[in-house]
Design a protein that fits this description.
Rossmann fold; eight-stranded mixed beta sheet
């Protein structure tokens, strides 16, 4: 049976979507059957990342009970020339849709959680996906809590910013521990002088694992060329020999064994 992996963060700008997109394509490139979902309804971004358009149905429609999830899925396997399969479920990026999703009440959120949980049967069991990957909204929004609850594994993308460390520590206590969720940390945008020193990297890893009480799945340096790319292409596909691509591959292996 496959796994549901939720990418989460305390705040925006940590690189959560970058990591979820590149992990999904890494798994698909290695022969896995993968579906990546945009659960950040306040700031949908996967449509821009994959440059898709003309959707008849959105993930919003599935959660609203308008359609079956199969009508939402967009198959990008041929476009990306991968060994496995890559499908995406996109959130509606229109202003009207964002406003509508932001106004949902707790009763609707409970029904939406039920529909997310149902994907374990329809996609993991019936369609035999290896991975469903949630790209969630940051913080403690209802939609991100639903994503964590329905996932098998939570991957928290964070930085060494003091407010990010404090917020992630609080979420570990109030969300991941509360729901007894298997959770790991991805430390992103780490200064080069830290990752280039084994001693400093080891000390930072030990410090943050003690603070969060969670394992560090990987440390990712601050790559200027990724920042310059600005999300205009999927980095692991375009730059297979880049250090970032190799780091993502190692993280994928760790999550697989997690």
């Amino acid at each position: 049976m496959g796994k549901i992996v939720a990418f989460h963060s305390y705040k925006g700008g940590t690189g959560k979507t970058l990591m979820s997109v590149n992990l999904a394509t890494t798994y698909a490139g290695s022969g896995k059957k993968v579906c990546l979902f945009d659960l950040d309804f306040r700031a949908p971004s996967l449509q821009a990342a994959f440059k898709t358009d003309g959707n008849e149905y959105w993930l919003n429609d599935y959660l609203n009970g308008v359609c079956d999830v199969k009508k939402v899925l967009v198959d990008l396997s041929q476009r990306h020339a991968i060994k496995g399969e890559l499908l995406v479920g996109l959130a509606n990026p229109s202003t009207e849709a964002i406003r509508e999703m932001s106004a949902k009440d707790r009763k609707w959120e409970m029904k939406a959680l039920g529909r997310l949980l149902a994907l374990k049967d329809s996609l993991l069991n019936e369609m035999e996906f290896d991975y469903l990957i949630w790209d969630t909204s940051p913080g403690l929004q209802y939609s991100s809590i639903n994503a964590i609850v329905s996932a098998d594994i939570a991957v928290v993308v964070t930085t060494i910013d003091a407010s990010d460390i404090e917020g992630t520590q609080r979420m570990a206590r109030e969300l991941y521990d509360l729901f007894e969720k298997k959770t790991g940390i991805l430390l992103n945008k780490v200064p080069a002088e830290i990752v280039s020193s084994k001693t400093r990297e080891r000390d930072l890893r030990k410090q943050l694992e003690t603070i969060h009480g969670l394992p560090i799945l990987g440390m990712i340096p601050c790559f200027c060329d990724i920042l310059r790319a600005g999300g205009t292409y999927i980095f692991t596909e375009e730059k297979p020999e880049h250090p970032f691509t190799k780091i993502v591959s190692r993280i994928a292996s760790k999550i697989e064994r997690f």
